[in-house]
Amino acid sequence: DRTKQIRNKLLNGLNRYFSFIGFFEKDYLNLYNLDTSSFLLNIDQGFFNDLLKTESVQYNVFFINRILSIILKDEYELIGNEERAVINKKRKGCHHWKSTYLISKKVHLIFDFEKMVNDVNNRLSAKIPEDYKFKLQGYLLNFQKAGCFNYLDKIVQISGQVLINEFGDKIGINEDIIFKRNKYKTIPDYIFDALKEAKGPLTLKEISNIINQQYPGAIKSVAALRGGCQHDPRFMCFGRSSVYGLKIWEKTQKNIKGGTMHDISEEFLSKYDTPKHIDKITGYVGNYRKNISSKTITDK
Q1: Integer angstrom CA distances of residue 178 from 122, 181, 229
Q2: Class of domain 187-299
Q3: Which pLDDT score, from 0 to 100, does residue 290 have?
Q4: Measured between alpha carbons, how far is 117 from 158 in angstroms, rounded to an integer?
């Protein structure tokens, strides 16, 4: 804890401790071929290695970016969660940044890069069963602070570099931003999709055929499907015939009810305090089961 307190104190005081370097000539940065006219001041590995070798120092990229932000305080804004990287201070819902970035004040004033990165992080932290995507420009407009159309191309370019550097192959960047699947389907998930597509009850064999047509080899046996249906609360069984459906259908569709005919008969009788004739029971059960008679119910 003491070490963490010292680091926190140093981090908070860095700008004050090194304020004198703000008076240095910015032209000195040209010695390292640093393009101070770009909208994103990118500290690549080449610049990093040259600086460490020339100055005989062992700085990390966070420290170098902080120093540059002091020298270039009038032109650039430093973004990224230094506290998380340097002193492991967590902020709820915030991304653990791999680096910090110097962004031109012109675009930083009109676009919230940190909010964008945190949104991507939160999306990737959730379960993603299937890839999904947004048009990149449309997605980025959600994070504008002010009208940014004049600089939209630059914002797209900067955002792409920052997001790829921070998240790697977890996302795809082109004309779209693609959030890639991070959760693989379980057998119940396959069953759910098959029933949802069918919009009606199916036998295990029918479910198996649909799944194997779309995902060859995903289901090894019908027995595996039976276990998936019986132990997942999303599904219901119709009688004892290995016919299954979605539990939600009882609320969203007419004449759909799971369970056996005895279960449905018992539900009907539970509404009354006196016995009911078998024909009344048969009529009620007939709302949910086809081709039945009073004998069918009593035999079951």
Answers
A1: 14, 9, 32
A2: mainly alpha
A3: 78
A4: 12
